[in-house]
């Protein structure tokens, strides 16, 4: 399982959309994103709960192709009760049949025995 990216959530990530690294576009590559279209649906499995989500990865139509997760993202934020400062970890895993499975995890910073650690975020 490979970590594609980790991100500490900002106010925009919590209320509107998740901005993701441009280098991840190659991992989400499809003929749709590579051509003139600017959106592709990604099936994503919650790493902790196993629940399946659909996120739309969109880019701008012109200029810099800033990728974001839009439709479906806020539902995940609410379901997992995420807040500013939490971290998401996005993973890619080969499924054994030549395909790819995307997974997402949510972490919250907490203090345990005087040490700051990242622990799983419970569902609301």
Automatic annotation (TrEMBL):
Q: Kindly state which keywords UniProt assigns to this record, in alphabetical order.
A: DNA-binding, Nucleus, Transcription, Transcription regulation
Main location group: nucleus
Domain named TF-B3 is located at: 5-110
Q: Does the keyword Transcription apply?
A: yes
Q: Where in the cell is it found?
A: Nucleus
A single GO cellular-component term from the record reads: nucleus
Tell me the domain of life.
Eukaryota
**Which GO MF term does the entry hold, naming one?**
DNA binding
The UniProt entry, under CDD domains, shows: B3_DNA
Q: Which residues form the signal peptide?
A: none
InterPro entries to which the protein is assigned, alphabetical: B3_DNA-bd, DNA-bd_pseudobarrel_sf
Per its record, how is this protein called by name? TF-B3 domain-containing protein
